[in-house]
Design goal:
plasmid
């Protein structure tokens, strides 16, 4: 069970990181520097 929790935690962290990169990418497209 502990392995599953750590695996799930990694997935959540990975998803949040990818989501943040995606959002910042969209923002840079909408707002040219």
């Amino acid at each position: 069970m502990q392995d599953f929790k750590s695996w799930l935690n990694k997935q959540v962290v990975l998803c949040s990181v990818l989501w943040q990169e995606e959002v910042s990418f969209q923002l840079t497209l909408k707002v040219p520097l």
